[in-house]
Write a structure and sequence with these properties.
The complex is a heterodimer of chains A (128) and B (163).
Chain A lengths: L1 H24 L15 H8 L4 H7 L4 H7 L2 H9 L3 E4 L4 E7 L5 E7 L2 H4 L6 E4 L1
Antiparallel strand pairs in A: 1-2, 2-3, 3-4
Chain B lengths: L1 H9 L1 E5 L5 E5 H4 L3 H8 L4 E3 L5 H15 L6 H12 L3 H14 L2 H15 L4 H8 L7 H15 L9
Helix pairs in contact in B: 4-5, 4-6, 6-7
Classes of the chains: A alpha+beta (128), B mainly alpha (163).
């Protein structure tokens, strides 16, 4: 009787130890709420800042953390380093500074309100 | 003079991964990583890397070796190597990014982040969430609201695949 109880405790213990080992080695990237890079917002920002602007805006839908990162000051400075600007005009309209096909810097208006603007861009030449 | 360069070339480092595997590499290869370089400058030859797992470390050592011998002539070869290097699953890429971030190898970091960005740029937010293993923490009402605001703008443009 005593022996049975002991082996049961042992089995529970070993399963517990087993589970902690597997979370620390295999699932160290995937186990948490914010998934890969939970502890490395730098990496997420680095990736997001390389996306085209409309895609960055879409990524705000992913989760609260990403939305906060995209709205952060650091993110804006990184975009500035990559010579991209984006200025939030109101909830749904953005101005974006990007290079066009002939390598000129233009302001693009990106709107998330398609029924009003039909996603039409209004490029304006800033400097060449 | 020749003998000094020879001893310099032979100087070896030992890297220890988080799984306790040890790798011996030449110092000239290792110092491409800022983290290792700082340790080497402080006189260490044994470098424990508690945040880098064996699988990622093997790939990174391959990368460093290839890039250590960079000359004008093998430029094409390195480009093909890089292409193969990033042609892997998202989970492997994430593992490599956290390793490269810890080791401060900026050229590798740039390449990996650009690859990930290029591969997720046409994906839907749902697919991105699955790829990054993120649980959505918006309430259903909030999500419906954002979705409604964005729906018409982006409808039908997304790639839902996870690779």
């Amino acid at each position: 009787m005593m022996h049975q109880r002991f082996t049961r405790i042992l089995r529970i213990l070993s399963s517990l130890v087993g589970s902690t080992i597997s979370t620390s080695t295999k699932d160290h990237l995937t186990s948490k709420n914010y998934g890969a890079f939970e502890c490395l917002p730098d990496c997420i920002i680095n990736i997001l800042s390389r996306l085209p602007i409309d895609c960055t805006l879409k990524c705000r839908r992913v989760c609260r953390l990403w939305k906060a990162l995209i709205s952060s000051h650091y993110f804006a400075t990184l975009l500035h380093d990559r010579e991209k600007f984006f200025i939030q005009y109101d909830e749904l309209d953005f101005f974006v500074l990007e290079e066009n096909d002939s390598k000129q810097k233009v302001f693009k208006k990106v709107s998330l309100k398609p029924e009003l603007t039909m996603r039409k861009y209004h490029p304006r030449l800033l400097h060449s | 003079m020749a003998s000094t360069t020879e001893t310099k070339q032979k100087k070896m480092l030992i890297l220890k991964s988080a799984d306790n595997d040890e790798f011996e590499i030449e110092e000239s290869v290792g110092v491409q990583s800022e983290t290792i370089k700082n340790l080497v400058e402080d006189g260490f030859t044994f470098v424990p890397l508690p945040n880098v797992y064996t699988k990622a470390l093997i790939k990174i050592i391959d990368y460093l070796k290839k890039h250590a011998n960079k000359t004008d002539s093998n430029d094409e070869e390195i480009k093909t190597f890089d292409k193969d290097f990033v042609n892997t699953t998202f989970d492997d890429l994430f593992e490599l990014v956290s390793a490269a971030n810890y080791l401060h190898i900026s050229c590798l970091m740039n390449m990996l982040c650009q690859t990930i960005a290029d591969r997720i740029k046409d994906k839907s937010p749902e697919a991105v969430r699955k790829i990054f293993h993120i649980n959505c923490d918006y309430t259903p009402e909030e999500e419906a609201k954002i979705r409604k605001a964005n729906a018409q703008a982006f409808e039908g443009q997304f790639d839902e695949s996870l690779d």
